[in-house]
Design brief:
CATH class: Alpha Beta
Order of helices and strands: EHEEEEHE
Strand content: 25-35%
Largest sheet: 4 strands, antiparallel
Helix content: 25-40%
Shape: flat
């Protein structure tokens, strides 16, 4: 079955005002969804990326490090899931069910093997 990468894009500032209880509620939603996908055999991997510690490598001759990982809009990849689906439509259905759609947006890409 094909594998698809779900890249979770978000603005980390949206979480700055959440109370600890509200943040725990968000984490619980992701945990519940992740467990449900794993039990259904649709989840291969997934991790939350650490906020603010990434960098982009520029494509200049020196390969210099650039401030980031932010784009101009402060949109970052906050994490990812690798899911199994029969096709792109199946992967999109999985992405639409992910709690992240309430907090940001999800880029869905098929993983090319070989």
């Amino acid at each position: 079955m094909p594998s698809f990468l779900l890249l979770l894009h978000e603005d980390p500032a949206q979480y700055a005002e959440l109370s600890p209880a509200e943040m725990q509620s968000v984490v619980a939603e992701y945990s519940t969804w992740t467990q449900r996908m794993a039990e259904a055999g649709k989840l291969s991997a997934g991790v939350k990326l650490r906020d603010g510690l990434g960098r982009r490598v520029g494509k200049d001759a020196a390969g210099r490090l650039m401030d980031g990982p932010f784009t101009e809009t402060k949109d970052v990849v906050g994490g990812y899931f690798v899911v199994l689906a029969p096709d792109l439509d199946g992967a999109l259905a999985i992405a639409r069910d992910c709690p992240h759609v309430a907090n940001g947006w999800i880029e869905v890409r098929e993983i090319e093997i070989g």
